[in-house]
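Feature request, filed as a ticket because there's no other form

It would be nice if the structure record came with a short human-readable summary line next to the tokens. Right now we just get the raw output. Example of a typical job, pasted below so the devs can see what we mean:
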Amino acid sequence: MEHMTIVRVREGLHARPATQFVKLAKQFDSNIELVSGDRAISAKSAVKLMLLAVKENQTVTLRATGSDEAAAMEALISFLENPDAGLDTDTGHADANEPVAARPEPIAAPEIASSDGLKGIAASDGLALGPVFAYFPPSLDYPARSLGAADIEPEILRLKAAIATVQARMQASLASGTLSTADQGIISALSDLVGDEVMISEMIETIRLGNDAVTAARVVTDGTAAAFANMVDVYFNARADDVLAIGRQIMLALLGKRDMDLSAMPQGAILVADDIGAFDLAQAPLKRIAGIICGRGGATSHIAIIARTHGIPAVVGIGSAVQQLAEATELALDGEQGRVFANPTADLRADIAARLTRAKAELEDLSRFRETIPRNRDGVVIEVAANLGSLEEIEAARESGAMGVGLFRTELLFMRQKTLPTEDAQFEMYRTLAESFHPNPVIVRTLDVGGDKPVGGIHFPHEENPFLGWRGIRMCLDRPDIFKPQLKALLRAAVVGNVKVMLPMVSLVDEVHLTRTLIDECRRDLDAEGKPHGTFQLGVMIETPAAVFIADALAREVDFFSIGTNDLTQYVMAADRLNASVANLNDVGNDAVMTAIEMTARAGAKAGIMVGMCGEAAGNPKLIPQFLAMGLTELSMSPSLIPRAKKCIIEALSVD
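Raw output as currently delivered:
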């Protein structure tokens, strides 16, 4: 069977959406093809899918043949028609109520006028000044070998073992807990590329022609990288570097070698490289790196993405001049202008140092608010909490001064595997979270997935608009086999910490009643099983207009409200938050949205329950004073925004 559809995935099927689409396709036994124009490729090869260069709003045809073709077609069409599909799903979906890429604020980088310097591609904003740390691994000069017939199969096994080794290293890195959420998404996508069926088949075929495994890996990855480099789209051009990087990793594994160790990098150094693989960079001591300069790469390369995620100034695409920079003793770079200065003059150095000092002073000024506990004139604490998507983000939240967790998205655990997580696996996650912030509260949102977020073990029907469909609490109540293990795990975690539970996409008071009935059932089950369990406060996300209109009734049934401003805004304004043509309507500060927030706050105050906000607007300094005036007593946001938000709260309360 086949079906034509329009791809709505934001920016098309680039690396992460492509690998997630392939993961989904591999869950089905049917043969699946994606057709664009006159080209048809296997939907189970991320490399071929990316080379197809499918853009957002492009029409494609999906073909499926096999025993589960109907289910495959339904799931994959739903994926293609969802703007957020595949974005960050390996690392926690970029929630609708949080910025897609929360990261530390970069140091402002006004243009340096003292000298032209070397011009490259501005990859990550900020100024940097520091000593050189040169990263130039030796080239892999390996003489090709011709194989005899008896050597073919052993060489294929050697290739497969090397690929397994590389994937195991990447999986170990993902499981280490040292990577940021964004970096995990990149490494996961690279791991999928290493195991791409089509590239592996081509390598095996090259070996069958009498070539050794190292040569096969080089030929195939070089050829695939060249295909990406010749594409018109700059994003897909950048994937050439990824393919070359994984090819190098496979060849190193075959040769029993490892690349240069970055652990010796001194504090405050400027990393200079012709190229560096995303896998290597993500594992580097990123907190020590003052700046990054690369000969290769572009603004959409994974090097640039990692640099921006961690607030590291970066200039890429310098070209062969990078060799000269490696010989300098000190470098300065302007990440906003894309300029690099070798051995800067005394005047230039002083200028940069002064700018860095001012920027550092600003950050230090904010740092004094990290441990602040804001209180209003009545002595009520204003909780400034963190929005988190994984346990890996706990350290950053605590360092920023988070007074707990205002939104913990549970989707990541479900999306990381092909089967539903067990009650015990969920319990371990929630227990760790609760212990990490005890005695401060952690608000855990129950599973918030729908047809736009494919999850192994849950079949979602095709929906014309999954954002208004079978999702969140609606799906969970229909699937107690999924919902009850999560509720039981949360009840067990409540023994060790201050756990609160929040229901997403609530539109009816009955949804709260039905959930409480299930919670009672879970308590009885845990009693029968002899498992210790506690109690938790139950709240709802206010993100639908319906919830606003029945806020008085809801407030009598729950312990707290948390307002999800991004979804609430798009639903109140009937304006898709991803549609640029109606972006002017998607404004939290609009009178209609602010009225909805105020109505919610009044209903909560009348019932005597806590009213908080976990949407992106919670960290907006321009809006925070208004939220405080409405009576909100909890604001939850990306960890990097917490110190500035605390300062804003203190200033706003001092004016009152």
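Something like this underneath would help us a lot:
The domain at 2-80 is CATH 3.30.1340.10 (Histidine-containing Protein; Chain: A;).
The CA atoms of residues 133 and 371 lie 35 Å apart.
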